[in-house]
Amino acid sequence: MTDGPATTAETAERTLGIILVSSSAAVFGLTGVLTKSIHADPLTITCWRGFVGSILISLYVLWRRRRSGNRDALRLGWRGWLLAVEGALASIAFISAFKFTYVANVAVIYATSPFIAAVLAWVLVREPFRLQTMLAAAVSLCGVAIMVWSGFGTGNLFGDGLALLMTAGSALYMIMVRAFRDTPVVWAGAVSAFLLFIIGWIITDPLAVSARDAVLLVTFGTSFALSSILWTEGARLIPAPESGLLGSAEVPFAILFAFLFLAEIPPVASMVGGVIVLGAVFAHAGRDWLAARSQQAASNIS
Hints:
Layout: H1 3-28, H2 31-37, H3 42-68, H4 77-100, H5 103-110, H6 113-125, H7 131-150, H8 157-179, H9 185-203, H10 211-235, H11 240-247, H12 250-262, H13 268-301
Helix pairs in contact: 1-10, 1-11, 1-12, 2-10, 2-12, 3-4, 3-9, 3-10, 4-8, 4-9, 5-8, 5-12, 5-13, 6-7, 6-8, 7-13, 11-13
């Protein structure tokens, strides 16, 4: 009789986790639309996105810290600062990429970051990766090659290159997060966002924006913080394979929002490459999710 309430509680917890992670993917999918809707340059965008985002994420971290009673959570150390700097540089490339190519191209190329992380982990620290990951990475590379090749002579090649650079930076960030397990990652993200504000303030004139852009910049910073917080809270409640699968939904969300709000339709080559990459991403994530579900079912039976 005692198993019923526990099972109900676990189901409710998992449902909440699914909702939070899915909502995070939807909110993060607005990145391309917001970037292209703001007339300011990429550094000004990252400056104000970082400023608003760092404040909101910091408030969340402080709330979490007070709730858990962990008084050591704000000590970054050199590893945390390395994470913050690397994350800031990747963010600059990320925002800039949207200004020079299609939202779909950036979103789809970014979806390959787990595979690039697996390859980099093998090259840098000799971390083995599975056959299915290697196959998915190879298929994704073919899709990205089609998309990038279509950018020759269209003016989108620079943006695609920035998206590839940003994806490599994000993959390296994933490896660092796994390696620096004792580092407060969310707090490092808040510091990274504030670094973007400092860089933008020094290099550009962040106050020279229109009232319309100012509203969008605050919205952008809020959405950035919200997606980070929703992901952090949701990922605590569901298994990693499931959160990875749901997080992949940010790509179709980004493409859908670009079509609805910007009337942006990428060329046929981008669509073909995107379908190939998304097929590999969802097949890989779905296989992990099914394996995790089977393992959980087997453990429940035993």
